[in-house]
Amino acid sequence: MSRTSARSGSPFEAAIGFSRAVRVGSTIAVSGTAPVWPDGGVDPDPVVQARRCWEIMLAALEELGGTVDDVIRTRQYVVDPAYGDAVGAVHGEIFGDVRPASTMVVVAGLLDPRWKVEMELDAVLSA
Fold it and tell me: By CB neighbour count within 10 A (0-12 exposed, 13-18 middle, 19+ buried), where does 40 fall?
């Protein structure tokens, strides 16, 4: 099977040695994605952060031939349980009809203290 990858331009991709997303056959895995803008900025609002994460991930998914309808699993990491409802509502806006398997986990912290959320997804392309 062929292997292709998508890169988002994150400085961590080269430094750590990862791709934003990888496709092998009909499976696409999108790496943990933080809510960073191209200029390195991070909005403090967890809802804006959630939307930014999904924007980055869905662009990588599309670059590798996938769509929202192909997503089978999502993972959302939040640093405060108080963000759960708002971040979950953004997930519902995007995946309400798709309803992938999903997990939301409260974590002690993320790599950058400005990040309130980080997310990842897996997809299997339709035949």
Answer: exposed
CA–CA separation, 96 vs 84, rounded Å? 16
pTM: 0.94
Q: How far apart are CA 97 and CA 106, in angstroms?
A: 25
What is 3-124's CATH topology? Answer: 60s Ribosomal Protein L30; Chain: A; (3.30.1330)
Contact criterion met (CB below 8 Å) for 16 and 23? no
Q: What is the pLDDT of residues 25-81, one digit of tens each?
A: 999 999 999 999 999 999 999 999 999 999 999 999 999 999 999 999 999 999 999
Which residue in the block uniquely carries the two structure tokens 């409802």? 85
